[in-house]
Write a structure and sequence with these properties.
By secondary structure, this protein is of the alpha/beta class. The chain has helices at 12-29, 42-49, 55-62, 86-97, 120-123, 161-176, 192-204, 218-227, 239-252, 290-302, 307-322, 341-364; strands at 2-8, 35-38, 66-71, 101-107, 127-133, 145-146, 153-154, 181-186, 212-217, 234-237, 262-264, 269-271. The protein has twelve helices and twelve strands.
């Protein structure tokens, strides 16, 4: 597998380094050939080349099987117009790769239940997957811009039937592999795009009679996520709603730093932690690399089609947490086992190798 690594900004490079190390070790243990190459994106790319998504980066990404991204965004560029900011690099990358279904799983990890801002009784047992449409809606719809005199600004939320259909199929198929429940989230009481969304998802549902579909308005969904998150299995929603709800779902697990994501359906798959560049803690070796590391498990699952290798990494993460190791963001008061970004990466790598070897000896028997 050819992988392009885009560390990006802030904590991106530190968490990516750990993720790539874990990936390399696990790949070696499972005899998966991986060739990875680093390139620039975001603020780091603006600094070096003047562009947030330079042609060399684009070229490398198109020629690979998967892209692993750290994070993009830096306060240094806060004064720039939206079209010149680091984030544009990420949006161009997404468009170029073509993946329209962004999978963001969020599950209660028993060892971390105390770090969730929710009471244990509410959050325990939560296991949900947000399928966020990634290439449409307000992020990409036109027209957009400022009026000539800068006294108005406008964006366009736009969806076609085919854009909704293709992501709905991914969501229904994901639900089939889980608890067979799909909640489609929209704002159909106000928005035309949401009415089209709801009609289309309802029509696609006919192909999946084994999956139970319900619909929820986005404001109600935000509320249900904190009052009754265990009701959800797969949540399907449009780009901006998915951006917002996935941060909310992520933090319920104890830290935004924990969650991975995969973007599939296009020419090249894209893997990135859900968290951002967290400039305030960048370079301090305290960031949580588990979201990035878990993204490499998704890479092995979806692009590599190697479930045992993916599971080795996921089990390693659970094991390290069960043993009590914590990065600062997920440490409870008085925790004596706080580790650095590097240490967390090494711990996961070594446990993953143990799982990989156990897997091999099991198959050898
Ligand atoms: C995310 C991020 C991005 C988004 C930003 C950095 C453009 O918040 O991946 O959720 O809004 O999609
Ligand atoms: Mn976001």
């Amino acid at each position: 597998m050819k992988i392009t690594v885009l560390p990006g900004d802030g904590i991106g490079p530190e968490v990516c380094r750990q993720a790539v190390d874990v990936l390399d070790e696990v790949a070696a243990a499972f005899e998966i050939q991986i060739e990875s190459e680093e390139h620039l994106i975001g603020g780091a790319a603006i600094k070096a080349t003047g562009s947030p998504f330079p042609p060399e980066t684009e070229f490398a990404c198109i020629g690979s099987h998967a892209v692993l991204l750290g994070a993009v965004g830096s306060p240094k560029f806060d004064d720039l117009l939206p079209e010149d900011r680091p984030e544009i690099g990420l949006l161009k990358l997404r468009k170029t790769l073509g993946g329209f279904a962004n999978l963001r799983p969020a599950a209660a990890i028993p060892a971390l239940i105390g770090s969730s801002p929710l009471r244990k009784g509410i959050f325990a047992g939560t296991d949900l997957l947000i399928v966020r449409e990634l290439l449409g809606g307000l992020y990409f719809g036109g027209p957009r811009g400022f009026s000539d005199d800068n006294t108005e600004a406008f964006n366009t939320m736009r969806y076609s039937v085919s854009e909704v259909e293709r992501v709905a199929h991914v969501a229904f198929q994901s639900a089939r592999g889980r608890r067979k429940k799909l909640t489609s989230v929209d704002k159909a009481n106000v928005l035309e795009t949401s009415r089209l969304w709801r009609q289309t998802v309802t029509r696609v549902a006919a192909d999946y009679p084994d999956v139970a579909l319900d619909h929820l308005f986005v404001d109600a969904c935000a509320m249900h996520l904190v009052t009754n998150p265990t009701q959800f299995d797969v949540i399907l929603t449009e780009n901006l709603f998915g951006d917002i709800l996935s941060d909310e779902a992520a933090v319920l697990t104890g830290s935004l730093g924990m969650l991975p994501s995969a973007t599939i359906g296009g020419n090249v798959d894209l893997y990135e932690p859900v968290h951002g560049s967290a400039p305030e803690i960048a370079g301090k070796n305290i960031a949580n690399p588990l979201g990035a590391i878990a993204s490499t498990a998704m890479l092995l699952r979806y692009t590599g089609k190697n479930e045992p290798a993916a599971v080795a990494i996921e089990n390693a993460i659970s094991k390290v947490l069960d043993e009590g190791h914590r990065t600062a963001d997920i440490a409870e008061a008085g925790c004596k086992m706080i580790v650095s970004t590097d240490e967390m990466g090494s711990l996961v790598a070594s446990r993953a190798i143990e799982f990989a070897n156990a897997n091999y000896s099991y198959h050898a028997v």
